[in-house]
Structures are given as C-alpha cells and as structure tokens.
Write a structure and sequence with these properties.
By secondary structure, the chain is mainly alpha-helical. It is about 75% helix and about 0% strand. A two-stranded antiparallel sheet has the order 1-2. Helix 2 crosses helix 16, helix 6 packs antiparallel against helix 18 and helix 7 runs parallel beside helix 9. Keywords: Cell membrane, Membrane, Transmembrane, Transmembrane helix.
Length: about 350
C-alpha cells in the first residue's frame, strides 16, 4: 500500500501541469546556480589561497532574494527544486563511483571511511544533546561531517522529519561544513611533520577527515599527485557510504517514535538510483564522457537545490541560531579528525 502511494505521489509530482507551475521557480534557482558556476570557472571566487565554493555564493544570493519566495508564482518551483532536483542530483552522484577504484588503496582507507561515517553520525546524535539541541539536528550535522558535506546534509534533510526551522538548520549546516572544510583544507596539509605520517597515510588522513570532496581535492593537490589520489579514494569511500548512512538515519528516525518523528519520512527511493548508477559504473557500462557529464549535472542540480534552500531561508533566522549549533559542528570536525589520526596510528601495527 505504501509503495503504491509513493508511486502515485511521483506521478503527480511529474505531471505536466505541476511542471508548468514549477517552471518559474526552477528557472530562477537555475539562473542563481549558473551565476555561481560562471563565477567559479572565471576564478572570481578565488582570493589568493582562499577559495569560496560556488554553493556558498549560491546560498548567499538565494538568501538575498528570500523576500521573493512568498510570491505564489515561485513557490511551486522552489519546492520542486529543493526536493525533487535535490534527490535527482544525489542519485546521479552514484555515477562517480566504481568498486575497483574504492578498493585499490587497500584496507586502511576502507576502515577509516567506515569508521569516520558511522562514528561521526552516532557522535553527532549524542553530542547534540550536550549543546541542548535535538537528536535529529545531530544526525543532520553528523551526516554532513561524516559523509560528504553539503550533499550529505541535503540528502539527510530529505529523510528527517520536517519542522518550522528545517530550512534554517539545513542552510546553517551547508554553510558551516563548507566553512570548516575550507579552514581544515589549509591547516591539515601543514601537519604532516608533526603527525609523522607517510605520504599514503597523509592522503588517507585528508580524505577521511575533511568534509567536502572539493576541499579534499584542494588539500591533496597541495601535497602532490600521490597524496591527492589517496585522499580522493578515501573520500569516495565516504561518499559511497551515503546510501547506508541515509537509510540508517531514516530507520533510526522512524524507530525512535515521539513527536519529532510522528511524520515518518518517505522511503529514500532516490538512493536506489544512486546504488544502481554505482553498480553500472563498476561494470564499466557508463562511458567516461557520460560519467563526467553526469557528474557535472549532479553538481549543478545540487547547487540549484541549494539556491531554493537559500530563498526559503531568512538571514535573520540564521543569525539567531545561536552558539550551540556552531559549537556542535566544530566539535564534530575535531572528533572526526582525531578519530582518523588515532585509527591510522592504531592500525599501523596491523600493517594496514
């Protein structure tokens, strides 16, 4: 019965009338995303060694246009972009993954990635209570910190129960993980001598401890091609954990009961698309050109969804979020960094 209801909702969502109503809002979000992409390709977001990710510019522009979100002509498109286009973008991420690439680094990156994802999500849910925040907020930030930054935050938000501050919490998490990723992208490469890591261990550390894929690549690139390769492989292992992580969060929320989870989340159907594309790519059925194009489309759709998120988020509400969420994100960032360092030291004795 539930599967038929989901199918009916999908058919209604993609009905021509609904798409026509959604077109103005989707177009505006796409234009915002295109402006951010153009600025990034022209290096307008680079200020010396500092790089501002295009999704941050997208979010800021969206929040600046927040007063427009109340217009009836834009509302359907903002909802469509923020939900449906997001799910499609996350599903298309699967085309970037192959099982061969994910295991070529040996056991250490796999152990680090699994521990970073699982432990950080659980830690986030637990630590949120220490700062007077809800478990669901801890799951949201823990998933963003443990898996793959903004994309994981958007995916987790899709299966967490909605409340009046859902958009504000998501916008804060997206901005927070990107800011902290940029900070540690600059700091972590300078720690190799102090940590006593080999180049391989340094790549695993960067890929296991930095939140966003772009910042992992940036940090790895500063240390050479070997570190970059190992860092990206470790990070892709964390990205591959998106499916079980989101499915686990959906199960956790549905099982927990209580008023926050009384509106049970829709089954994360979009993640099966993620898994199917990863399987096809592992079998070599997706040509390299198609894979690259799908990756670009995925990134653009996620940034378009972030534009919708920004337009639905009040800057004033974001400012009023308080120090608790800020301290939680910082604590999670420190936690995953120390966890990865400790595991690398601990696993040396096993020859991993």
């Amino acid at each position: 019965m539930r599967n038929s209801a989901v199918a009916a909702d999908l058919a209604k969502l993609w009905a021509p009338d609904n798409l026509r109503r959604s077109a103005p809002g989707i177009a505006l979000c796409a234009v915002i995303a295109a402006v951010a992409y153009y600025a990034d390709t022209r290096s307008l977001l680079r200020f010396g060694a500092v790089w501002v990710p295009p999704l941050i510019l997208t979010l800021v522009i969206g929040m600046a246009l927040q007063p427009l979100s109340a217009r009836p002509v834009l509302k359907p498109g903002l909802e469509f972009a923020g939900r449906t286009l997001l799910r499609i973008g996350v599903a298309l991420l699967g085309a970037r993954l192959t099982l061969g690439n994910l295991v070529e680094g040996g056991a250490l990156p796999i152990v680090i990635a699994v521990a970073a994802v699982g432990c950080t999500i659980v830690f986030g849910a637990w630590a949120a209570r220490l700062f007077g925040l809800s478990q669901n907020f801890g799951l949201l930030t823990g998933c963003a910190t443990g898996v793959c930054g903004a994309a994981a935050a958007m995916a987790a938000s899709a299966v967490l129960p909605k409340h009046e501050n859902s958009d504000r919490d998501l916008a804060f998490t997206v901005m927070g993980v990107n800011f902290l990723s940029t900070v540690v992208m600059v700091i972590y490469p300078t720690l190799r001598e102090a940590l006593g890591f080999s180049l391989f261990e340094m790549g695993v550390f960067l890929g296991g401890a930095i939140h966003d894929v772009a910042q992992v690549a940036g940090a790895g690139q500063t240390m050479g091609p070997q570190v970059l390769s190992d860092a990206v492989i470790t990070k892709l292992l964390r990205v591959a954990a998106l499916l079980p992580a989101i499915a686990g969060i959906a199960w956790w929320v549905a099982k927990s009961g209580g008023p926050q989870s009384s509106a049970r989340p829709t089954p994360p159907v979009f993640l099966f698309g993620f898994l199917a594309l990863a399987a096809l790519n592992s079998l070599g059925l997706i040509p390299a050109g198609v894979r690259d194009a799908v990756g670009q489309i995925s990134a653009f759709l996620i940034i378009t969804a972030i534009a919708a998120l920004g337009m639905k988020t009040s800057l004033l509400a974001l400012v009023r979020i308080g120090m608790g969420p800020v301290m939680l994100l910082i604590t999670e960032t420190i936690f995953v960094g120390l966890l990865v360092v400790g595991l690398i030291y601990g696993l040396r004795s096993f020859g991993l």
